[in-house]
Write a structure and sequence with these properties.
Layout lengths: L1 H16 L3 H10 L13 H8 L1 H26 L8 H17 L12 H11 L2 H16 L3 H21 L7 H16 L1 H9 L7 H11 L1
Helix pairs in contact: 1-4, 1-5, 2-3, 2-4, 3-4, 4-5, 4-6, 5-6, 5-9, 6-7, 6-8, 6-9, 7-8, 8-9
């Protein structure tokens, strides 16, 4: 019977994750289909390319919010229904499915983003310092290396590491969040396959200060 509630949590996560904020914001501000710009993804980086820093930042924040909402809504509904040992698995199901919903949204004919925003969001809802850790690491890589894909992959790898430390130290009584982090890391890596190929070929796009540094160097 409890399995039914976990399926419900997964459905909640998917539907929240599938809300295509980037697509909606760019459509509203620029009147264009974000899927026709740059990488064709609907996350913060491509929204930045299509509509500028403000829209890109807002998209990333809202993608984090929907990932966090998947866990928080599930917790609010299920905490009085599920035994304590089952609740983390329901939260994890919601978080994982939020990432899947973002990447393969039913509202965009199963197109979407790479999953970084909702991945940070669900993990942050489980343990809020994840937001600080991932923002510092991801932000440093974005500024220093200039590749959003590298920052996303690093953040995706960092989340299960954080939950592994918490689980093996006894801070988390269940491996649910660690399992969820491993699954979402694999999902993000799968979505970023084209970027990984470009990174290996030395052809990945740059964003932010690194892009400006390259432009300045090439203009000399």
């Amino acid at each position: 019977m409890y399995f039914i509630y976990i399926i419900l949590a997964a459905l909640i996560g998917y539907l929240l994750g599938a809300i295509p904020f980037g697509f909606l914001f760019v459509k509203f501000t620029k009147g264009i289909d974000l899927r026709d710009v740059g990488s064709g993804r609907t996350g913060g980086t491509n929204s930045l390319r299509a509509a500028g820093l403000g829209v890109g930042f807002l998209t990333f924040v809202m993608d984090i919010v929907k990932g966090a909402a998947a866990v928080l809504v599930t917790r609010a509904i299920m905490s009085a229904i599920l035994p304590p040992g089952y609740l983390p698995w329901a939260e994890t199901a919601a978080g994982v499915m939020a990432v899947i919903g973002h990447n393969w949204s039913v509202f965009l004919k199963f197109g979407g983003g790479a999953g970084t925003g909702p991945n940070v969001g669900w993990a942050m809802a489980v343990w809020w310092p994840v937001a600080v850790i991932t923002c510092i690491v991801g932000g440093a890589l974005l500024i220093g290396v200039g590749m959003a894909s590298v920052a996303s992959l690093a953040v995706a790898a960092l989340i299960p590491i954080v939950f592994a430390v918490r689980y093996f130290s006894g801070a988390d009584p269940t491996a649910a969040y660690l399992v969820g982090g491993l699954i979402t890391a694999a999902i993000v890596a799968w979505a970023l396959r084209p970027n990984i190929r470009r990174i290996l070929a030395g052809e990945e796009r740059l964003v932010g200060p690194a892009a400006k540094r390259r432009e300045k160097k090439e203009s000399i």
